Structure prediction request, 220 residues.
Amino acid sequence: MDFDKLIEYELELSSRTDNGNRSVHVLQDTSGSTRTGVGSTVWDEGIVAAKYLDWQVSQGKMDLRGKTILELGAGTGLVGITVSCLQPETTVLLSDKNELVPLLEHNISLNKPQGTVSAICLDWCIPEHRERITAAPDLIIVSDGIWTKELHSHLADTLARLAGDNTSVLLAYETRNFEEEAQFMALWSNRFRFHDIKPTDQHPVMQSEDIFLFSGSLKN
Prediction:
């Protein structure tokens, strides 16, 4: 991958972190030159999800220290890398298709994570890939993962396989097709309970009426 052809995106953090981080930097492919698909672009729902986590931590409403976080379909890694920069002692695993792993690894190197962060290949459509996650994470992040209905059943199955009793799931998406999105939520509800995250709990500026955040966990 020719990183010289990519464009840098910078996300400002709400407050200075313990190791001096003031922003997160990732490269993205807005022209399609890398032929890696839509995952190599920073999308608005990823920005909203990252700023939600940043805001919650900066306001003392969320403590991620010592937590294990898995981002599915990480793309550029913006959300997961943001988490890794916020608090110490986090273990963040960014995952996506094989062709996006070099971009994830490069974007990790552009930042100063306080915890441990790495990237692996995990394709939702290949059930064997789920075996690469050997322990249930504390938090699973999915940003813009339901944009096409062909992925819905694979994502729902992957979440059910990887989540444990104490796992929280953060789902973020921009509404594009209400009927298809409702179909995924119905599918997700078979094994998960969830609720929407209100605008009052999100970053006061970096939010949108077209972007929805949900928090979910396995049903008992």
Remarks:
- The first strand starts at residue 7 and ends at 12.
- The mean pLDDT is 92.
